């Protein structure tokens, strides 16, 4: 989808480039790139600047295999060169939002570095299993697993923009729901 303003197209293209990647090349992501991804993640805004997050970077194959077994939606995690796990303080009401913003920043930075990612969110049961595997203490919640690597699949940039999901000034109840791409 093209911008109505040609000047803004480069910015939109940056966002459209990020795609969910589940197949990765057998190629290590350099440590300096991982640090840059984490810098981008930690540049996310947080409520009160509390920064309630911690990040667990997993490269160990056995740990990745264990993590891939906690959810049927995360089976491909074992094949990624690394997995960045985002953890937040349970005592911070805003941690779920702040950690989600950090995940978004991380995934956008990864796309800009020609890396693929997917955000694997966890429900309470799966989160507990992941926390146990990673040795995360009780005062923290494991919000997401983000496999990172050089893509072994190609997906074209796209948007999920859907004008039917936009309400102006007030929510318009009763409108039929539509899905982008229908």
Topology:
Blueprint: H1 9-16, H2 31-42, E1 53-58, H3 61-68, E2 82-89, H4 95-112, E3 116-117, E4 120-121, H5 124-134, E5 140-149
Antiparallel strand pairs: 1-2, 2-5, 3-5, 4-5
Summarize the structure.
By secondary structure, the chain is α+β, with helices and mostly antiparallel strands.
Characteristics:
single chain, 5 helices, NADH Oxidase, alpha+beta, 15% strand
Report the major sheet.
5 strands, antiparallel
What is the CA-based Rg, rounded?
A: 18 Å
Structural class: alpha+beta
Care to count the β-strands?
5
Strand content: 15-25%
- The CATH superfamily label reads NADH Oxidase
* CATH fold type: NADH Oxidase
Average pLDDT: 89
Overall outline: globular
Helix and strand string, N-terminal first? HHEHEHEEHE
CATH-defined architecture: 3-Layer(aba) Sandwich
Poorly predicted runs of 5 or more residues: none
Tell me the name of the CATH class.
Answer: Alpha Beta
**Number of separate domains:** 1
Distance between the termini: 15 Å
Can you count the helices?
5
Helical amount: 25-40%
Description:
With 182 residues, the chain is α+β, with helices and mostly antiparallel strands. It has one domain (21-153): NADH Oxidase (3-Layer(aba) Sandwich). It is built from 5 helices and 5 strands; from the N terminus they run H-H-E-H-E-H-E-E-H-E. Strands 1, 2, 3, 4 and 5 form a 5-stranded antiparallel β-sheet that branches. The longest helix is centred in the middle third of the chain and has 18 residues, at 95-112. The two termini are 15 Å apart.
């Amino acid at each position: 989808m093209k911008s109505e303003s040609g000047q803004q197209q480069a910015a939109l293209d940056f966002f459209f480039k990020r795609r969910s990647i589940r197949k990765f090349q057998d190629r290590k992501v350099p440590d300096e790139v991982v640090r840059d991804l984490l810098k981008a993640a930690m540049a996310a805004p947080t409520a009160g600047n509390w920064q309630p997050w911690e990040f667990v970077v997993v490269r160990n194959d056995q740990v990745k295999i264990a993590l891939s077994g906690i959810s049927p939606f995360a089976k491909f995690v074992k094949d990624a060169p690394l997995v960045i796990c985002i953890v937040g303080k349970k005592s911070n009401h805003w941690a779920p939002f702040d950690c989600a913003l950090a995940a978004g920043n991380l995934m956008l930075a990864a796309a800009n570095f020609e890396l693929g990612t997917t955000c694997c969110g966890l429900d309470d049961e799966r989160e507990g299993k992941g926390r146990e595997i990673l040795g995360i203490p009780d005062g923290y919640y494991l919000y997401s697993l983000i496999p990172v690597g050089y893509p072994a699949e190609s997906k074209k940039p796209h948007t999920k923009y859907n004008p039917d999901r936009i309400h102006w000034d007030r929510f318009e109840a009763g409108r039929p729901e539509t899905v982008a791409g229908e």
